[in-house]
Write a structure and sequence with these properties.
Number of strands: 15
Largest sheet: 7 strands, mixed
Helix content: 40-55%
Distance between the termini: 16 Å
Strand content: 5-15%
Low-confidence stretches: none
Mean pLDDT: 96
Structural class: alpha/beta
């Protein structure tokens, strides 16, 4: 990706200096730091242009060419463009690009296909699932009966024998495959086979790996599963938003669940940006980008392993990894704060069978989409791993961590991000 030349925000600078000044600080943070949060990335200038456009001024409840407001003739064109590009990108029969984010996308899918109290078999949050996959205080856990499958204690891999046993025992209305913190491939066909045997609807949440699927590096569940949800940022490198893909037989109930079931008017400036991002992902160059993300993740995992850190599952097949910090006698929350002081952004994360609480954790989750967008390669992951390791070995030594922060800023400057 070219150096980003986001607008200098002339009007913001002139009319709201407080917000402008905070924006400048955030730009500095992104430029000078190392972004290792697996769900974050940098959008292109073109995506940014679409987000900050006149499309934001229009109300457009309904779907293209079936709106509840007038004046949508051009909105219909741009949203239809997003839909058609998404269909091509993922080989989807039907697409709704209106969900504002991943949580309401999943909510809409459940709303369309389930009744309150229905049983869903999904990945346990303690083993890598997402909060919208059954967290008790999330709508999903309050409204539906989620049964969590786990990973094997010795390998960290999804226990497919357990998935089958739980499906046979509980006869779920839906089987959900997808994750927020799992570093290996999912066997979509195996999940589909189990679902067919027990008569369950199949749903996949590919929010984290959508870009790797679009880039033809991982298997695509869209032709296999009944419904697939995804965010449009993360590895897909689009604006913050989401979409739902499904078989044609579910198209009407999915569309009605999004609107008027869950949401009101769609954010058409974001949908325009989604259309742009889908075009970028359809470029054959995106396939190499997706491959580079995985290569960098594997190089980073290897480099951390060499430094005595344990990677859950022994490595990664996608863009992320869970790092077990217990060998360093450091908890995830302490590591996250120390790394942040060194201009390295990560997030604390539970590891499977974690003895710590969710706000403490024994691990951190790392990912390589943002660093790959900046142009870093596997050789750079060795240096990044050394930065991380040095911080973890310097917990409590503020002077040393400040020194590492200077090294990080100097290294990050070799990979320019913004230009004004």
């Amino acid at each position: 990706m070219k150096i980003l030349t986001y607008p200098t925000k002339k009007f913001l600078k002139e009319n709201d200096t407080k917000v402008f000044n905070v924006l400048q600080q955030e730009i500095r943070r992104q430029k000078e730091g190392i972004e290792l949060i697996a769900s974050e990335n940098y959008v292109s200038n073109t995506v940014m242009d679409a987000m900050g456009s006149a499309f934001t001024n229009k109300y457009s409840e309904g779907i293209p060419y079936k709106r509840y407001y007038g004046g949508n003739q051009f909105i219909d064109i741009v949203e239809s463009l997003a839909v058609e590009r998404a269909k091509k990108l993922f080989n989807a029969e039907h697409v709704n690009v209106q969900p504002h984010s991943g949580n309401p996308a999943n909510m809409s899918a459940y709303f369309a296909l389930l009744e309150h109290g229905d049983t869903v078999l999904g990945m346990s949050l303690a083993h890598g699932g997402h909060l919208s996959h059954g967290l008790p205080i999330n709508f999903s856990g309050r409204w539906y009966n989620f049964i969590g499958y786990t990973t094997k204690q010795d390998t960290g891999l999804i226990d497919m024998e357990e998935v089958y046993a739980l499906a046979k025992k509980h006869k779920p209305k839906m089987i959900l495959a997808g994750f927020s913190a799992y570093s290996r491939n999912i066997d979509w066909k195996a999940f589909k086979k189990i679902a067919d045997e027990v008569g369950a609807i199949t749903m996949a949440d590919i929010s984290h790996i959508a870009g790797l699927i679009a880039g033809k590096q991982l298997e695509n569940p869209v032709p296999i599963f009944d419904v697939v949800t995804t965010t449009t940022h993360k590895t897909l490198r689009g604006p913050r938003g989401a979409m739902i893909m499904c078989k044609e037989q579910f198209a009407k109930v999915i569309d009605k669940a999004v609107f008027p079931g869950i949401q009101g008017g769609p954010h058409e400036h974001i949908i325009a940006a989604k259309a742009v991002a889908f075009k970028e992902a359809l470029n054959p160059k995106f396939q190499q980008y997706a491959k580079n993300i995985i290569n960098n993740a594997q190089a980073l995992a290897d480099a951390l392993t060499k430094r005595g850190l344990n990677i859950v599952t022994g490595g990664t097949s996608n863009h992320l990894m869970l790092v077990d910090l217990r060998a360093k006698k450091v908890t995830g929350n302490i590591a996250e704060k120390a790394l942040e002081k060194a201009e390295i952004s990560v997030n604390k994360n539970l590891i499977p069978y974690d003895p710590e609480k969710p706000f403490v954790t024994s691990g951190i989750r790392l990912g390589t989409p943002a660093l790959t967008t900046r142009g870093m390669k596997p050789k750079d992951m060795e240096i990044v791993a050394e930065f991380v390791n040095k911080v973890l070995d310097s917990i409590g030594n503020e002077k040393k961590i400040r020194s590492i922060a200077k090294e990080v800023k100097k290294y990050a400057s070799k990979f320019p991000l913004f230009s004004f």
